[in-house]
């Protein structure tokens, strides 16, 4: 049996718009802070040429393995790391600063289909939800150890879940009999607790899975640290940052960071969103917002 990872099935979000906002040219040093399946990175390499340098980061080593099938060469370095730790990566690679930085905060189709970590309740699997399985607490353990108040806070703060209290109580009641260890079990429990209907057409467990994923990966903390300290320290003056968000919690943090006019000049005053054609081609882009700013 081959050890070669499956090819990526992820479609990069708004590729034409992202490349235009990055304003690339040959010879630039570009960081793709969430390389995923390598879709954006492949396009970046085409623009910066052999004299440029791409640094691709991802906390998920399985995504780096897929990315290596898309991007490679002497002008490409792929590293397992959080974008929040970019200063350490650049120092190790002996790169002074980046000219462009891209961060795509979406979950990839490959991760959603991965049955080993339970990112997608449609695919199912053990309730892990960590990008890097060697770090942090799996979501299943969090559901087993946290009190109802803590779970309610997670679901409300990170998922903006209106039924946070009811779902938290249902989880605590269930674990007295048996722990909730799989994505399927949690999705069914939530549907039983709040109903399976809904005008939006989304599964009632969607917000809870988002909240748990954010919590176990400390995603908002990484984003805050990245925008406040990492990005200004690693980007050259006049360099450009492009950030793709997928829900209001992320977008609010990015919007507020780029409001610092002493530090940033906005490239687009309103976030760029997907066209109808883009959402037909790639339904995951429907909630994407793209913001870009130049470091003064």
TrEMBL record:
EC number: 2.1.1.199
Catalytic activity field: cytidine(1402) in 16S rRNA + S-adenosyl-L-methionine = N(4)-methylcytidine(1402) in 16S rRNA + S-adenosyl-L-homocysteine + H(+)
UniProt-annotated binding residues for S-adenosyl-L-methionine: 38-40, 58, 83, 104, 111
Gene3D superfamilies: Putative methyltransferase TM0872, insert domain (1.10.150.170), Vaccinia Virus protein VP39 (3.40.50.150)
An example Gene Ontology biological process: rRNA base methylation
One Pfam family per UniProt: Methyltransf_5
InterPro entries: RsmH (IPR002903), SAM-dep_MeTrfase_MraW_recog (IPR023397), SAM-dependent_MTases_sf (IPR029063)
Highest taxon of the lineage: Bacteria
One of the record's GO molecular function terms: rRNA (cytosine-N4-)-methyltransferase activity
Segments passing through the bilayer: none
Region annotated Disordered, chain positions: 274-296
Family the UniProt entry places it in: Belongs to the methyltransferase superfamily. RsmH family.
Function: Specifically methylates the N4 position of cytidine in position 1402 (C1402) of 16S rRNA.
Name of the protein: Ribosomal RNA small subunit methyltransferase H
Organism of this sequence: Maioricimonas rarisocia
């Amino acid at each position: 049996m081959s050890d070669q990872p499956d090819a990526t099935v992820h479609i990069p979000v708004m590729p034409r718009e992202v490349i235009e906002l990055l304003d690339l040219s040959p010879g630039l040093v570009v960081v793709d802070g969430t390389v995923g399946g390598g879709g954006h990175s492949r396009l970046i390499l085409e623009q910066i040429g052999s004299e440029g340098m791409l640094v691709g980061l991802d906390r998920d080593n399985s995504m780096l393995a897929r990315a290596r099938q898309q991007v490679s060469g002497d002008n490409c370095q792929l590293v397992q790391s959080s974008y929040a730790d970019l200063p350490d990566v650049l120092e190790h690679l002996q790169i002074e600063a980046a000219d462009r930085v891209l961060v795509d905060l979406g979950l990839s189709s490959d991760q959603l289909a991965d049955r080993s970590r339970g990112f997608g309740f449609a695919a199912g699997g053990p309730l892990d939800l960590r990008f890097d399985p060697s770090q942090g607490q799996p979501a299943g353990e969090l559901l087993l150890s946290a009190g109802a108040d803590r779970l309610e806070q997670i679901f409300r703060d990170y998922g903006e879940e209106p039924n946070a209290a009811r779902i938290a109580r249902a989880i605590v009641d269930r674990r007295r009999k048996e722990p909730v260890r799989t994505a399927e079990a949690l999705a069914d429990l939530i549907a039983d607790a709040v109903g399976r209907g809904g005008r939006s057409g989304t599964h009632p467990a969607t917000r809870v899975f988002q909240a748990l994923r954010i919590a176990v990966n400390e995603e908002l903390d990484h984003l805050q640290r990245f925008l406040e300290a990492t990005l200004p320290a690693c980007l050259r003056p006049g360099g450009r940052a492009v950030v793709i968000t997928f829900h209001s919690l992320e977008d609010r943090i990015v919007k507020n960071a780029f409001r610092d006019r002493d530090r940033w000049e906005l490239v687009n005053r309103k976030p760029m969103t997907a066209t109808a054609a883009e959402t037909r081609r790639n339904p995951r882009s429907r909630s994407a917002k793209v913001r870009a700013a130049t470091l003064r």
